[in-house]
Input
Amino acid sequence: MIFTIFLWLLVWAAMYSGIENIRALQFFTDKLTVFQGIRALLPILAIYLCIMKAFFSRSLKVPSLKTAPGLFFYYCLIGIIASLKSTDILASIYYGFIYLSANLVILNLMNNKNPVNNAGAISRVNFIFFMISIVCFLPQALGVGLGVLNDLPFGLGAVNRNGIARYALVVIIIAFIHLINARKFRSYLYIFLLAPALFILAQSQSRTALLGLAVTLVLVFYLKGMNWRLFILSPIFVYIIWLSGFKWRAQEVFVSMFSLTGRELTWERALELIKLSPIYGWGFYADRLLLDFEHIHNSYIHALVQSGIVGGIFFSGAVVSIWWFIFKHNLFRLVRKSQDSDKTLIIESIALVGFLTARSFFESTAAFYGVDLLLFLPAVCFIYLWTKQAEGSKVGIKK
Output
């Protein structure tokens, strides 16, 4: 488990860094420049360690097309190959490889001993990162308020309001689910995380995060059923959605709730780009290189730009496959009947996948290396592994 956590920390290390920091290493301007450049390379080290471990443990396997992580792997492979015709081959291959690093850690984990415990461990590591982030942004939110871009401490990078809203919603999901599953008094301490996260979410006015909050409410209701804690918290969530989304963001104009805020113009430019290379796309980082650093704000169009129709099929198949798996295995019923110690974590995982799937239509969720990918992969992995374990043992399942 310790080795898996170490690998996952290496994957996280390049967040809010990038190829420009690696290129700046040659100048040795200051210690921060060196630090930023080195951490941008750490996911590559994770790839090497995953391959070495798989080779020496003789667990090197061809990724399966039957699971979302396997499909994401092939999407990534197509994108890396397509990167060879990029206008900046080094940048494209770099971003393809750090995407690959997250995939390989998950695939390695699924072949480990005690994979459920390992998947649960990196999900908890994710939660610690998000919890720390909320604590970092709270003073600014309480003071001058969230800006368009908000600096991380120690010069680690900057996060926009949508990104901060995503951090807040993840904390809300986890705190909320722990609260409604509370059996011990200490579980109520999650209120001290839920309250500031709700405040930050409301202040962000992020419609994708508010949509995720609504999706989470529906999923948790189906997974858990109504209880008195859910009865108390649900109206608070609905009020936050109304206040932040309708009253503040839309200025009480209902149609404004559904405005694409210019996304459609970027989508049109991206579709023209796809037509020029429809089969294999333009490689990773193509949106930044060929669309003047515009954000595509749609996972499926983003995937098509980077890896064409071939890669786009793998990417879309990965998202569809997890929901097919959930319904095929009647996971909602299985979770409701479960008395497993990991019940809270499986509910969290399904809620996160629901949020990220809804988000994928308006943001580039999991189409490139980023926070969404590092959320999605462990959640999906845990769903597969927990279901396999629950169906295999039938332990902790109420008759």
Notes: Residues 2-393 form one domain. Confidence is low (pLDDT under 50) at residues 394-399.
